[in-house]
């Protein structure tokens, strides 16, 4: 007999918690400050050692078991533990279960060392009562707990997991635990679930890891394949609970529901997450018309997509209908003569959108009353989602990162494919650091407010790259009955730092309120010949620093506003091919900034340090070069508010005769 002490792990644990003893988090659902591991884990949560000389050995033998401890009762294939202590389980139980039924002050450690337990009609491990139960896998051991096709009630508790606990539950160790649940959940506790070490493989038709009050993970390796959420905490009775906290760990998740879901807040400090939900982004919702050209509907700020050649699509598609020849639009709705026909809103399009908005509203109303709609998001939080670090490879049918409140990203790396938004917050979305690569999404960053102060962000979107809009999320901010062109109070996009590159099928930066740029580098490409533009805002727009280049369609183009203190130039140019270089040079020929636009374009908006009033500059866009003199901070006014229904297009300036020399 011997004592098992895992010194390397204990040293790491001591560093992690600094001698902490806290068992419960004290933070509220608002999570005004990030929590730390010392708030989440006790010393014993992290302790994986055990004293074999004092442990009670339970030997599993097919249809029965044996044990010398008075605290263990064996009745056929049911083993019941009734007192505090450490219990060492080994062997195979073909069809039976372990029940923990002790005093509510007792702490019990179950050490699995080559244990295989199958229960055909109930939980393989059922914790009916205890203060806390620790399930520890012995070093290098392989252990399996499995269930059958049904869960038969034993008492008043609704047992629906292979591991089912009414008390706090901690999983740890240096071995492997496999949980197979063909009829329900994998691991369930109606209190707190803490996992601090070990390797876990969970296959479940329901949820993988579920803690009603919380799920807290310090470390471990997880392979979770689930028919519902892979990791979930959901407490509708106490809004201070129902949270998920990850200090570390490596996760490979394939879920038909959400990857990770918390009814209140979620925080990730440092974890490696590979998550596929709902079959991946290829199974995302088909996005139909959210709004008419020019941002009608106040939705995601998206537009009806157009065919590549600008012609009307077949009946039944989501494209705006072509106006019959000779038909006159309503008063005040005539687009300017130089607007591309495919960018002009028509009265038929307006009527179509009104009907679409009604249908959407009805659908949204129906969604709120439907309880069996499957959510397929990557990481989802009810009140706040905080990403401090980690690595994420996400392929999700719905949003990759989603919060019904605020969402903050300050570190980590993310590679994202999603059928909807990459990052969505009903409240404030802030990005202050990290590296984000979004190769597939409907919209990249979306929130009531969007603030970017740092990070390297690359977005390829089928609709808007960045969108700030009011309203509740329903596959985007749907029509909310507000004036479609009025600036919404408290809605804004603010960029003060970082590097942001956008390749958008809709607008690049779309705010139903204000737009402010004071730093960073922003490179925006949108589709030419469409109703979308690099900048699209309803309120005011100001640039006081940083570098911005936008290339896209000319019909709805906007420049920054008069409160800008850094020069900004908006130009209409001859149609330029994808891959053309946009640059601006001063009168001495010094290139101030340049970029290759990935999509074709006919309009350029450009601002960077060095553009000053009374200066003369040459803007080169592919084969077109234009000389511009700034009388004030702005050249080319563009439209006003979501393209101003066409407004003024950017000035053309004075063409440079020798394009090659000017370039």
Q: What gap, in angstroms, lies between the N and C termini? A: 82 Å
| Mean pLDDT across every amino acid position | 83
Main sheet makeup: 47 strands, mixed
Radius of gyration: 30 Å
**Percent range for helical residues?**
under 10%
Total DSSP helices:
5
Helical/strand content category: mainly beta
What percentage of amino acids are in beta strands?
A: 35-45%
Low-pLDDT runs of 5+ residues are 5-29, 289-371, 472-483, 639-649, 656-663
Q: Total strand count, please? A: 54
Shape: elongated
Describe this structure as you would to a colleague:
This protein is mainly beta. It has a domain of 225 residues. Helices cover 7% and strands 42% of the residues. The protein contains five helices and 54 strands. It has a 47-stranded mixed beta sheet that branches. Strands 49-48-51-52-54 form a five-stranded antiparallel beta sheet, with no helix packed on it. Strand 3 and strand 4 form a beta hairpin. The C terminus is likely disordered.
Topology:
Blueprint: E1 3-4, H1 7-17, H2 37-40, H3 43-46, E2 50-51, E3 56-62, E4 64-66, E5 72-75, E6 78-81, E7 85-93, E8 97-101, E9 107-119, E10 125-129, E11 132-137, E12 142-147, E13 161-165, E14 168-173, E15 176-181, E16 185-189, E17 192-195, E18 199-204, E19 209-211, E20 214-217, E21 221-226, E22 231-233, E23 243-246, E24 250-255, E25 260-262, E26 265-268, E27 272-277, H4 347-368, E28 379-381, E29 384-387, E30 391-396, E31 401-403, E32 406-409, E33 413-418, E34 421-431, E35 435-440, E36 443-452, E37 456-461, E38 466-468, E39 492-495, E40 499-504, E41 509-511, E42 514-517, E43 521-526, E44 535-537, E45 541-543, E46 547-552, E47 568-576, E48 581-585, E49 591-596, E50 601-607, E51 616-621, E52 624-629, E53 634-635, E54 654-655, H5 659-662
